[in-house]
């Protein structure tokens, strides 16, 4: 009778396990595991109306699940031979002229590789910035509210000018 330790050493062959190419496929025929957030982790919400919010609907699975995309689809492929992008005589003249004018204006050119490869600074957000509060209204409810306010404003303007309709108001300002 074998001990448990002996059984484990025989069952686990390091040479086979280390070079194994078999990977567990994800659900729905996916190649890798599903890395999407679970329902409680999701923060996406939509306005449900009446100032309420509800969790947004889950994403639909892609149609190309389980299919490796070829490199030609993932990356832009060259359309011409290397070094074939030569300037015409007129274009070369124009480029030289523009470079000369830029030098005269005192503009610096980032032609060195180190300058081109420099990491660009990310724009910093002002510490005073506060995002707009969510209204909890659906787009149709927001539009309704906006139109109601515009109608109220229009009535106030008509009342203040002593006119009965908007046509009279417009005629007054356009007849100058």
> Could you tell me how far the N terminus lies from the C terminus, measured between alpha carbons in angstroms?
110 Å
Query: What percent strand?
Result: 5-15%
Given the structure, what is the number of helices?
Answer: 7
Query: What number is the mean pLDDT?
Result: 78
How much helicity do the residues have?
40-55%
The secondary-structure element order is: HHEEHHHHH
Number of strand segments: 2
Low-confidence stretches: none
Overall spatial form: flat
Q: What is the quaternary state of this protein?
A: single chain
The biggest sheet, with number of strands, parallel, antiparallel or mixed sense and barrel status, is: 2 strands, antiparallel
Strands across the major sheet, in which order?
Answer: 1-2
- Structural class, by secondary structure, is mainly alpha
User: What radius of gyration results from the CA coordinates?
Assistant: 33 Å
Helices and strands in order:
Elements: H1 4-11, H2 14-18, E1 45-49, E2 52-55, H3 71-74, H4 89-105, H5 113-117, H6 139-161, H7 166-174
Antiparallel strand pairs: 1-2
Give a summary of the structure in a few sentences:
By secondary structure, the protein is mainly α. It has helices at 4-11, 14-18, 71-74, 89-105, 113-117, 139-161, 166-174; strands spanning 45-49, 52-55.
Write a structural description:
The chain is mainly alpha-helical and 176 residues long. It has a two-stranded antiparallel ribbon with strand order 1-2. A hairpin with a 2-residue loop joins strand 1 (45-49) and strand 2 (52-55). The mean pLDDT is 78. It is built from 7 helices and 2 strands; from the N terminus they run ααββααααα. The chain has a domain at 138-176. Helices cover 40% and strands 5% of the residues.
């Amino acid at each position: 009778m074998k001990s448990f330790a002996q059984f484990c050493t025989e069952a686990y062959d390091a040479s086979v396990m280390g070079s194994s190419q078999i990977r567990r496929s994800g659900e729905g025929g996916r190649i890798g595991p599903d890395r999407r957030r679970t329902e409680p982790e999701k923060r996406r919400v939509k306005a449900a109306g009446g100032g309420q919010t509800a969790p947004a609907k889950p994403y639909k699975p892609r149609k190309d699940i389980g299919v490796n995309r070829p490199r030609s689809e993932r990356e832009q492929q060259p359309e011409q031979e290397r070094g074939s992008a030569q300037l015409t005589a007129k274009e070369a003249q124009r480029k030289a002229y523009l470079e000369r004018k830029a030098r005269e204006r005192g503009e610096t050119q980032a032609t060195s590789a180190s300058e081109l490869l420099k990491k660009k600074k990310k724009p910093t957000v002002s510490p005073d910035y506060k995002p707009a509060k969510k209204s909890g209204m659906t787009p149709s409810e927001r539009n309704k509210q906006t139109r109601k306010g515009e109608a109220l404003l229009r009535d106030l303007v008509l009342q203040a000018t002593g006119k009965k309709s908007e046509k009279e108001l417009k005629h007054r300002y356009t007849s100058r």
